[in-house]
Write a structure and sequence with these properties.
Elements (H helix, E strand, L loop, with lengths): L3 H7 L4 H12 L2 H5 L3 H14 L8 H15 L4 H5 L3 H13 L9 H6 L3 H5 L5 H13 L13 H17 L5 H12 L8 H17 L6 H26 L11 H27 L6 H16 L12
Keywords: Hydrolase, Metal-binding
Protein name: PDEase domain-containing protein
InterPro entries: HD/PDEase_dom, PDEase, PDEase_catalytic_dom, PDEase_catalytic_dom_sf, PDEase_CS
């Protein structure tokens, strides 16, 4: 029920900064790693300001992802279930905050098809994810923003690798591979004490927070879906100018019914298998299945897209 939208309004666009500051101090992480408060504030200010005013991929989206992730870590029981330590907790919060930093508003496919500067720079591989990571870690080379200044070499490398792995995992191109690994690991009886296993679980939770708006209460989901639709159509318009046609679900002339069909497909083939897997690891999160079902039903009731509806959610 946390209202990210209202927080963004009353904080004058600083919701990401405020929430991250509060969560870090609530969890004692700045004290744990001896992070200077002035440097931390500088870092959060520049990251918050470095998100572009895109309809969807903006600092408000990052705030929503951050809140979702912290809820899963704490109330959802992930910290206890996989044995997260302070490095893990800091890493997943940082990954949430920076995962779309400096996102230009058009997706990887557009950049690759147009051979943009970023696509060439990152050799067409996880273009936007690599861009966000490189920009953030470059910031941290400056003393003004270096929140890692007091870290041991081991702690810094541990947090850095975890942040990189999690942000790269948000690239949907790798979704099925990551989900298949996670599902296979769930079938093993061993405790989640290995760092690779812990990172895999954290990757999947960040992926759900990033792509799982449909697991939120309907009022919130409609807000995010509307913003996503606006950004889709903006890219579709740009694609038409360059290529003559738009990517699937990005043609504004096809309108809301076509967008709804895309949402239902995404829920069925991407979100439902992922949330079902996460709920096997974290049973406390099963309550979000009701929101997923309600949001599927909403689109079906409005547009009658029964052929693309939903996937059966466990429970």
């Amino acid at each position: 029920d946390f209202d990210v939208i209202q927080l963004e309004k009353i904080s004058n666009g600083n919701a990401l900064l405020l929430l991250m500051w509060q969560l870090l101090h609530k969890c004692g992480l700045p004290n744990n790693f001896d992070i200077d408060d002035t440097v931390l504030l500088n870092f959060l200010q520049i990251v918050n300001g470095g998100y572009h005013p895109n309809p969807y991929h903006n600092s408000q989206h990052a705030t929503n992802v951050l809140h979702f992730v912290q809820y899963v870590v704490d109330t959802g029981g992930m910290a206890h279930t996989i044995g997260m330590d302070a490095c893990d907790h800091l890493a997943i919060l940082l990954a949430s905050v920076v995962h779309d930093y400096s996102h230009p508003g058009f997706n990887n496919k557009f950049h690759i098809r147009t051979s943009s500067y970023l696509a060439v720079l990152y050799n067409d591989m996880s273009v936007l994810e690599n861009h966000s990571l490189a920009q953030v870690f470059q910031l941290c080379r400056e003393p003004l923003y270096n929140i890692f200044a007091s870290f041991s070499e081991e702690a810094f490398q541990t947090v850095r690798k975890s942040v990189i792995d999690m942000v790269l995992a948000t690239n949907m191109e790798h979704h099925q591979h990551i989900l298949t690994r996670f599902q296979a690991r769930l079938g093993e009886p061993d405790p989640w004490c290995k760092k690779d296993d812990q990172r895999l679980a954290m990757e999947c939770v960040l992926k759900l927070a990033d792509a799982g708006d449909c697991c939120l209460p309907t009022r919130q989901y409609i807000h995010w879906a509307t913003l996503q639709e606006m950004e889709f159509y903006s890219q579709g318009d740009a694609e038409k100018k360059v290529f003559g046609t738009s990517s699937p679900f990005m043609d504004r002339l096809q309108g809301r019914p076509h967008f709804a069909h895309g949402q239902l497909c995404f829920m069925k083939y991407v979100v439902t298998p992922l949330i079902n897997a996460i709920c096997r690891l974290l049973p406390r999160m099963r309550f979000v299945l009701q929101y997923l079902e309600k949001n599927q039903k909403m689109w079906i009731d409005i547009y009658g897209s029964k052929r693309s509806a939903g996937a059966k959610v466990d429970g």
